[in-house]
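Ticket reopened. Same input as before:
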Amino acid sequence: MTDVHPEGGFSTARVETLGDGIFAIVMTLLVLQLRIPAGTLARDFPHELRQLWPQLGAYVVSFVVLGIYWVAHHNQFAFIKAVDRVLLWINILFYLVVALVPFSASVAGGYHEQPLASAVYGGNLIAVGLVLLLHWRYATSKPALSEPVDPRLRREIDRHILMAPALYVAAIALGFVSTWISLAIYAFVPVLYIVPNRVDRTLDEMKAGLR
Amino acid sequence: MTDVHPEGGFSTARVETLGDGIFAIVMTLLVLQLRIPAGTLARDFPHELRQLWPQLGAYVVSFVVLGIYWVAHHNQFAFIKAVDRVLLWINILFYLVVALVPFSASVAGGYHEQPLASAVYGGNLIAVGLVLLLHWRYATSKPALSEPVDPRLRREIDRHILMAPALYVAAIALGFVSTWISLAIYAFVPVLYIVPNRVDRTLDEMKAGLR
Amino acid sequence: MTDVHPEGGFSTARVETLGDGIFAIVMTLLVLQLRIPAGTLARDFPHELRQLWPQLGAYVVSFVVLGIYWVAHHNQFAFIKAVDRVLLWINILFYLVVALVPFSASVAGGYHEQPLASAVYGGNLIAVGLVLLLHWRYATSKPALSEPVDPRLRREIDRHILMAPALYVAAIALGFVSTWISLAIYAFVPVLYIVPNRVDRTLDEMKAGLR
Amino acid sequence: MTDVHPEGGFSTARVETLGDGIFAIVMTLLVLQLRIPAGTLARDFPHELRQLWPQLGAYVVSFVVLGIYWVAHHNQFAFIKAVDRVLLWINILFYLVVALVPFSASVAGGYHEQPLASAVYGGNLIAVGLVLLLHWRYATSKPALSEPVDPRLRREIDRHILMAPALYVAAIALGFVSTWISLAIYAFVPVLYIVPNRVDRTLDEMKAGLR
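Engineering reply: fixed in the latest deploy. New output:
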């Protein structure tokens, strides 16, 4: 792995470091949507504070979703040994859609009764998921860039990444029926990624099979 | 320590790096609560500036409290040698409650005469303390994750971490009598953690005993 | 490479690390220009959201431009082996103009029909490009600071860096004819830097010639 | 150098890393004071843009001053080999006053015709300088924490650090005569630190004497 332009590559460490910075800032900027309007009188403060529940929900869900994508992105780098020009730009595109989350989360928190707000939030998260899938498929399709990955594992990781965007499509569509269903899906999806999953089981089986 | 997903772990360095970024940003975002309202006329500027004393107090106390938790979190990693899935998510939960501090501090600074604002701030800091305790107890309960810790030391660290949340419970309760008592407690708690304490003495004794 | 003042130098790693932090934050702060005005009623939300297209465009273009300059700056450090006082301050000047981009991008997004806004944005990006050129020329003119660079390559990199500022001058001038031409140029310039270019071909030829 | 609490120390690398993050964020947040008021009409935009000159001045001067203090702080760590509890908290205090600069700079930019605003800005920078001096004096007074420093060099560094606070006291005082004098001093002080200075000459002489 090299950091040197003359050899046409860019170090994986550098790309991950930029990502660590961006994830840390994006996760922290989420809090800016939580604010009592300037000039709120003392006697209106309890009311304004209660009004912030949807924003707090959007904060918690988005923080956890970003945590999941931060972990997933780093896990992919366990297989990636070099970054070419295309992969570099896929990474920057990934950071570009990740950095939009504080905006889409503030829309989702601020206008949670509107299907359109749910669509903005879901659309942003779908973009994050699809770019992560592109990142995975591109990197593992080039032997020069990644360690060989067992085809079964590769397919399962594909499906694991796609699960969230598929559910977010459902969340957006059902949002036009009831935004509460939509919000329930947004709250529920992260749980699927935090508990042990099929990819972990396959990895365990592969390790057991090796013994 | 490995960063590699196939082995089901995540490097301690990575988790600490994300934390360094988050703490640096959270501490710096605290300053955003200090602002002269847009459109303040020159002649009203001295008045508006004086109005910022409570916010400046909230800034200083919160900055120091975050400094304490940053140090404490790193100190725990002196004993931690690996991060499993549960510990990873305890860390992300820790960062989630830490990243709320700029919000709760701005509430405490902006509405310092309201017991409810004191409760929001205290509640946030209690959550930070309890998640840190959970982090410590979980990590040190698994031999695969941490160096063995002397039981007496472990208990003293438990108590040391719990001291702040206990005092914050008192601050919230007494805030309903007088918010000034509450503010005094918030200002006083960090002092207890900056001066040398019982945990340090135990560590010194243990080192002396080893000789 | 040394970090030690007594020897009058400053490590390249340190300077790059500050830059990584600054780029990550600047790229992330771009999102703050995307906001629904506080107090927008639910029924006006779709309208206000549609109003954000110019800001979203400014976000995407600026994010990609910053990505390009982040890559270019690091690529220069592939040749740089030490940082003297002058080069240190050229770097800080580079970060100073880079950190202005969230402001100039918000002006370009918010007032995209005004030639003056286009000039502010273009002027900022010209400054970034020219300071990067200064960085490259100064570093490679001092044998103590950089690896020797083939004169042909050096000239091509000069020209490659200057291409963007030249096009931005055109964008500013044509903005007084039509801001749409100006915006098209801003959207188009990054493409020139993402696709493989003459500098890459020269590097490939040089490597081929070496074999 | 150790990161381990049981030995009562904290790594210098860790403290510097937090500082790199804080400086990068503080320098970048300075840009938030540059903003066209929300709701400015297109025809008022040129006027509002021109109004931002003082803020742009405060941005540039503050960015450079922070660059100087970032360099100075790292240069001190060239001599520091360990961080004890007191030095750790001096560092956190240093970051606390550094992180206030975006506030005091926005005050100085927004109310540049008011001596009080100049005093807030100058007072903040005096605090930064004095805490840096405390950092230097404390660290170099403990043989366990730092390399031995030549007494003549130590005194010159003392004086070099004190120069800025002394000039800022003058800036505050003269601000009550004319804020223009005050602003000229703020613009001028950084120059003294960017050009080669007496400390550099002493270091050169010491190195020459060694040969």
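The mean pLDDT of chain C is 91. Chain C touches chain A at residues 20-21, 23-25, 27-28, 30-32, 34-36, 38-39, 42, 45-46, 49, 59-60, 63-64, 67, 70-71, 74-75, 77-78, 194, 196, 200, 203-204, 206-207 (CB under 8 Å). Please confirm and we'll close it.
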